[in-house]
Automatic annotation (TrEMBL):
Annotated GO MF terms: actin binding
Region (Disordered): 114-153
Biased composition (Basic and acidic residues): 114-141
Species the sequence originates in: Tachuris rubrigastra
Protein name from the UniProt record: Actin-associated protein FAM107A
One Gene Ontology term from the biological process aspect of the record: regulation of actin cytoskeleton organization
Protein task: Stress-inducible actin-binding protein that plays a role in synaptic and cognitive functions by modulating actin filamentous (F-actin) dynamics. Mediates polymerization of globular actin to F-actin. Also binds to, stabilizes and bundles F-actin. Involved in synaptic function by regulating neurite outgrowth in an actin-dependent manner and for the acquisition of hippocampus-dependent cognitive function, such as learning and long-term memory.
Subcellular location: Cell junction, Focal adhesion; Cell membrane; Cell projection; Cytoplasm, Cytoskeleton, Stress fiber
Length: 153
């Protein structure tokens, strides 16, 4: 029997009070009618007993009856997400391959290049702190040597 038309709480109550005929498990040996023994009760699943789980289950059942799938995203959105995911995976693979393919020589060249860039930045900072008349004087020297060399040629 399907009890999908009942609320989730009533469905769980029916499951707990199910007649013995529907039980697939074998009957335990300790049921002999002795009133001194404590009969064990089946533990409740806290996830299934929670209100949020019951509401979600009810919503899924209603969507199933209406014919709506769980994955109801438009096809275009799914394709775009798939492409984005593939592109990210591809980029990560390329980066990993680039790191693996670097030889010790290339690594050393990269270190030297970084050091040179750092030294150039330090020199630019020092030049920025120099007084303006020194900068103008250096520019004048450069122009005068260039014009003097051009005249000699």
């Amino acid at each position: 029997k399907h009890f999908s038309f009942l609320p989730a709480s009533m469905y769980t109550e029916i499951q707990r009070e199910r007649p013995d005929g529907g039980n697939i498990l074998t009957h335990p040996d300790y049921i002999d009618g002795n009133p001194d023994l404590i009969k064990p009760k089946k533990l409740l699943n806290p996830v299934k007993a929670s209100k949020s789980h019951q509401e979600l289950h009810r919503e899924l059942l209603m969507n199933h009856k209406r014919g709506l799938g769980v994955d109801s995203k438009p096809e275009l959105q799914r394709v775009l997400e798939h492409r984005r995911r593939d592109l990210l995976i591809k980029q990560k693979k390329e980066e990993e391959e680039a790191k693996k393919l670097q030889s010790p020589f290339e690594k050393e060249l990269l270190k030297r290049h970084q050091r040179l860039d750092q030294l150039e930045k330090e020199q630019e900072k020092q030049e920025d702190h120099a007084p303006e008349f020194i900068k103008v004087k250096e520019n004048l020297r450069r122009t005068s040597t260039v014009t003097g060399d051009e005249k000699a040629a």
